Amino acid sequence: MEEQSIRVEERQDKKEKPKSEDLIFGRNFTDHMFVMDYTEGLGWHNPSIIPYQNLSISPASMIFHYGQSVFEGLKAFRTENGDVQLFRPEKNVQRLNQSNDRLVIPPIDENLALEAIKQLVAMDSDWVPSTEGTSLYIRPFIISTEPYLGVAPSHYYKFIIIMSPVGSYYKEGINPVKIAVENQYVRAVKGGTGEAKTGGNYASSLKAQELCEKEGYSQVLWLDGVEKKYIEEVGSMNVFFKINGEVVTPALNGSILPGITRDSVIQLLKHWDIPLVERRVSIKELYEAHQNGTLEEAFGSGTAAVISPIGELYWEGHHLVINEGKTGDISKKVYDTITGIQYGKMEDPFDWTVKVEKNSKVRQ
Ligand SMILES: *Cc1c(COP(=O)(O)O)cnc(C)c1O
């Protein structure tokens, strides 16, 4: 496909930026956004960076009725010498197309999408905060915009990228959370859309999340949707356990979202020669490992928190305290290494970071 060039319309009245200490996840948006349209017959066209603004679309747009949409989430980081860099952005673009395939949304040109992310970040690079632990969250997404109430794939779409400066996830230091095993509701089932990053998966997770918060837990541990025996994810993160010296993570099975942080954790553990297996893990196995003292660590992984240690698991009347409720050594080492690479404080042996330069000149 021939590379399309991105039209740029710069905003004149720049917005006021929030102070680093006032940043709340996903509340403030930068000066510009990226938009590209899809029309059947014409394909994806008119890639543009424009001032951040409201959309005007028909209330009959299919996105409002049947939820045909996909999204991504990644971050830009400010390094100590003032550069701005992305973390494995090509993986997000690839995954966007995998999600597109599942939702019957026409594929995007991955090079163009990557270029759009880089140019948008370069244009609003003043919005990448520099205080410890802060970053610029990037949200690419696609919505179906055809005004039609019939149930069918849309013939019109919009691909949009918006960005939001975010504060440090761990203001008081990395802190283990309490998790409740979810026995009633499921997040996804094999054959469903669990593997795709699509809003519907989140809508269906809200009920369980609300109930667990009322009981004093921060997230739920999702079990598989068929037998409700095998562990899938924790909240909207992938999950890892250290059992008797070996790290175990649920194998990708069609209903688990293939996290980029998950993949990074796996690569790091292999690099360090720490035993790691991807396989099925049942909640019963975890319970038994806890009883015989071999459940040594548990943590979630995802772009927002990077690593979220699990200090306690609640399951059928049992409170399983893990590693005395403290952050484990592997959780800490993985967290320090991934964030070290993201902020340019540590070497990047895997070439995970991509530098963004002002004036949209990009060097790898
Ligand atoms: C996005 C997401 C993750 C984490 O993916 P990362 O690429 O690591 O951010 C895990 N589970 C679900 C359900 C997700 O939507």
TrEMBL record:
GO terms for biological process: isoleucine biosynthetic process; L-leucine biosynthetic process; L-valine biosynthetic process. It comes from the Bacteria. Its EC number is 2.6.1.42. Pfam families: Aminotran_4 (PF01063). Gene3D superfamilies: 3.30.470.10, D-amino Acid Aminotransferase, subunit A, domain 2. PROSITE patterns: AA_TRANSFER_CLASS_4. One of its GO terms (molecular function) is L-valine-2-oxoglutarate transaminase activity. It catalyses: L-isoleucine + 2-oxoglutarate = (S)-3-methyl-2-oxopentanoate + L-glutamate; L-valine + 2-oxoglutarate = 3-methyl-2-oxobutanoate + L-glutamate; L-leucine + 2-oxoglutarate = 4-methyl-2-oxopentanoate + L-glutamate. InterPro entries: Aminotrans_IV (IPR001544), Aminotrans_IV_CS (IPR018300), Aminotransferase-like (IPR036038), B_amino_transII (IPR005786), BCAT-like_C (IPR043132), BCAT-like_N (IPR043131), BCAT_family (IPR033939). The modification N6-(pyridoxal phosphate)lysine is found at K197. The keyword DNA-binding does not apply. Pathway: Amino-acid biosynthesis; L-valine biosynthesis; L-valine from pyruvate: step 4/4; Amino-acid biosynthesis; L-isoleucine biosynthesis; L-isoleucine from 2-oxobutanoate: step 4/4; Amino-acid biosynthesis; L-leucine biosynthesis; L-leucine from 3-methyl-2-oxobutanoate: step 4/4. Keywords: Amino-acid biosynthesis, Aminotransferase, Branched-chain amino acid biosynthesis, Pyridoxal phosphate, Transferase. Its cofactor is pyridoxal 5'-phosphate. Belongs to the class-IV pyridoxal-phosphate-dependent aminotransferase family. This is Branched-chain-amino-acid aminotransferase. It comes from Oceanobacillus piezotolerans. The lineage of its organism: Bacteria, Bacillati, Bacillota, Bacilli, Bacillales.
